[in-house]
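Objective 1b of the project was to move from sequence-level analysis to a structural picture of ligand recognition. The entry below was assembled by the postdoctoral researcher (A.K.) and checked by the PI before modelling. It contains the amino acid sequence of the target and the SMILES of the bound compound, glutathione.
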Amino acid sequence: MSVVLYHHPFSRAAGVVWMLEELGIPYELRFVDIMQGGQKAAELLSLNPMGKLPILVDGDAVVTESAAIGLYLADRARRDGQGSELAVQAFSGGLGRP
Ligand SMILES: N[C@@H](CCC(=O)N[C@@H](CS)C(=O)NCC(=O)O)C(=O)O
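Corresponding predicted holo structure:
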């Protein structure tokens, strides 16, 4: 089963997309219109009661909070020999900064 990311392009989900791409993890994007309150829909509140994006679903695992998602993906990728420095780069001060 592929990773699903509930996403809006102008949200912290952007850093998660970057990390998924860098790690080469296949994923499905599900657009959520946060301008229209889509993040408060019952289906999404059942995944994240905080009513916020991003939300990552990986099989039975549901991960929220962008930094936590970054660390989760780093742990997932470690099997393939990649480290957690990508999570630090993505979520500690902005994209592209070490
Ligand atoms: N600390 C959270 C912040 C989540 C957050 O504030 N997400 C925003 C988009 S960047 C959101 O969903 N806003 C809609 C709302 O608060 O209703 C994280 O890093 O994931």
